[in-house]
Amino acid sequence: xxxxxxxxxxxxxxxxxxxxxxxxxxxxxxxxxxxxxxxxxxxxxxxxxxxxxxxxxxxxxxxxxxxxxxxxxxxxxxxxxxxxxxxxxxxxxxxxxxxxxxxxxxxxxxxxxxxxxxxxxxxxxxxxxxxxxxxxxxxxxxxxxxxxxxxxxxxxxxxxxxxxxxxxxxxxxxxxxxxxxxxxxxxxxxxxxxxxxxxxxxxxxxxxxxxxxxxxxxxxxxxxxxxxxxxx
Length: 232
Hints:
- With 232 residues, the protein is mostly helical.
- The protein is built from eight helices and no strands.
- It has helices spanning 5-32, 38-61, 67-75, 81-105, 121-145, 150-172, 178-188, 194-216.
- Helix 1 packs parallel to helix 4, helix 3 (67-75) runs parallel beside helix 8 and helix 5 (121-145) runs parallel beside helix 8.
């Protein structure tokens, strides 16, 4: 099945919806009912929802669910500019709808899964950049070098996100994805630290892209921009 603009819009929006709904929903449930899920449960919710979204929606959209991942694939020549814009808009839409739905389920709950640093802003920035670097580099290695199957990619990426959320969640919220932070911020109307959760992931993605290009030394797609899709 070829990836069309409509299927990309649908797949990216729905996949991002699943991740934000179940990930931040688990955090909100744990806040509303202490010990209902626990920190490990919240981390699992993020990791499993990412894995399931990759397995389910990659054939429709490529399975990015993160504008940083979409931008890196664009920089590598895997998708064209139109696909990049469509994916990013769909991701923001999916995250917003997920947070809006959660605001209906948990009325009066102001947090809505917002990402807020529990450490200083500089520390939070570098933690988020490092987490995103590891995430993006893992994706690139599994797709381009390992040529892994969709099942392995979903399991590997989901497992890494679980570990990163487990370790760094209490420090920064372990966003690694601008739309994961933008969605709750738009619905809640809180934007104080949002710039950290946008700038840091893109910084980490840029480092991953540069490191990957230095290691591989040549254009990974080996085809003109947008001529082939790599499904992730």
